[in-house]
Amino acid sequence: MTTYLPKILRFLLFLVIFAAGVAAEKTGLIAYVTDPYEYPYILSLCWQHLYLVSISMALATALGLGIGILLTRDRFKKYAGVGMYIVGLGQTIPSLAVIALAMSFLGIGVKPAIFALTIYSILPIARNTLAGIMSVPRPLLDAAKGMGLPPRSILWEVELPNALKVIITGFRVALIINIGTAALAFLIGAGGLGDLIFTGISLMQPDKLLAGAIPVTLMALMADFFCDLGEVLLIPRGLRLMQR
Amino acid sequence: MSTWQYITNNYQYILLLTGEHLWIVTLALVIATLIGVPLGIIITKNEEMAHKVINIANILMTIPSIALFGLMLPVLSVVGHGLGMVPAVTALVLYSQLPIIRNTYTAIKNVPPPVVNAGRGMGMSPWHLLAEVQIPLALPVILAGLRTAAVMNIGIAAIAAYIGAGGLGVLIQQGIGRVNEEMILSGALLVSLLAVVVDGGMALLERLVTPQGLKIQQRRRR
């Protein structure tokens, strides 16, 4: 039984891929995305989506890391608990609500969308930076201090590398949520692939809908994969061996 | 405060929408629990399977919610339920699997082996062991998973308004459509409030179901 299982699963996988291909043809997806008048538009929406995600993620990473690092410095350590609580509370707020709030305070367009995405993505990054740095083993810090490292070097050479795994996890969560939320940015006039999805739903046009939904899904899955890759590339080898 | 006025003027409609929202989330959470908790317990017996199941749940979680609604629409249209409650609840059930399965799995795995061995030594059958030792000790962590799932579901159910599932997202959807600021604000604030309240309520529940013995142990460890 167990020897046949992988073969059966592989067969099922082929079947699913085949069915997906048939469905793509039946719903007119293939005709839609290869239409010379449509595909430049789809491509431009993809770029728009990537633009929203990359700008907001760059801002959120800088701010989130900054907040996380600041709250673990000795001077601000007493606020770490409060900061953690506020960030946790912020994360319970639904993404659509954040987008809607940004619209009602800042109006429509790309800027409010980037603002909402940035605010929403800061939370997981700040939270994990905080948690990661706080969970660095005490003896490591003491050893660094004993060697006479100044606080700045302790941060760069001891705390951050040791916290990197947790920070990257936070970045991954933020990035994936960001890609999904950027699809909602269409609702406040910022474009992106949400355009195809929402229009497809309203018009009951499966081809349009899938032309938006599939790239967004692929983008999220690829982001997940690249974060795995980043983990391997960025974390020092010694630490990776230790964590295993 | 015109938003406040909007809420008080339309409180019946808003109550209806809140009820709808809670109904979708609760239904999805009950179904997800019925699937996720047994699955989480089963995979504690098989390390390899556990890895696979959690990975699949992880991939499901990666798919953006509005894209999942989009992907399900043509599929569920075949059985005539492309829009409305059915795809909304299905998506919520799928998304809830990761927190529920992962927390159940780690919670059962983390029950201290001496406790399990003591139970076995007293002649408990595996079922007995599960019902009287492992599950009670794992309950707080399992509930923490349900809490994560519930909060997440409230947010995704708001987006489900766009596929006609109702709920408080309708206020946001129609508010954006009509450029009615009070409507958008009241929708966004109420959904956020709902999420925060449910989060707090579940946290309270978590504390209530923690067995007395476990609490004393935790206190002593501090």
Structure description:
The complex is a heterodimer of chains A (244) and B (222). With 244 residues, chain A is an all-alpha fold. Chain A has eleven helices and no strands. In chain A, helix 3 runs antiparallel to helix 8 (151-182) and helix 4 crosses helix 6. Chain B is mostly helical and 222 residues long. Chain B has one domain (2-221): MetI-like fold (Orthogonal Bundle). Helices cover 84% and strands 0% of the residues of chain B. Chain B is built from ten helices and no strands. Chain B has helices at residues 2-9, 11-42, 47-62, 65-77, 85-109, 113-121, 126-159, 169-178, 181-209, 212-221. The radius of gyration of chain B is 21 Å and the shape is globular. The termini of chain B are far apart. The relative contact order of chain B is 0.14. Chain A binds chain B through residues 23, 27, 89, 92-98, 100-101, 103-104, 176, 179-181, 183-184, 187-188, 194, 197-198, 200-201, 204, 206, 209-210, 212-214, 216-217, 220-221, 224, and chain B through 59, 62-71, 73-74, 77, 82-83, 151, 154-156, 158-159, 162-163, 169, 172, 175-176, 181, 184-185, 187-189, 191-192, 195-196, 199.
Q: Report on the biggest sheet of chain A.
A: none
Uncertain runs of chain A are: none
Oligomer: heterodimer
Query: What is the H level of CATH, i.e. the homologous superfamily of chain A?
Result: MetI-like
